[in-house]
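ingest -> validate -> predict -> emit
validate: passed (alphabet ok, no gaps, 75 aa)
predict: started
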Amino acid sequence: MEDKNTVIDLQLQTSLPWHKARITFLDLLIISLIRTHTVNYSINAVNLTDRVTCSNLRRIQRFFSEFIIDFDLSN
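emit:
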């Protein structure tokens, strides 16, 4: 992905107090989910970035296994 802020990225930055790298990853994941029309990790790993698919797959797995999303988070 280019080093530009997308509308999704800007909205996430203003809504979430997360580290920039985590927000960028979530931005990429959301775009991949929209493009692929599936939540299958393997398929989204291929579309996530130009990096190695195995690395992207592990990145997605770590995000969902290690990171706790606070759904009650408010601004």
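The first helix runs from residue 7 to 15.
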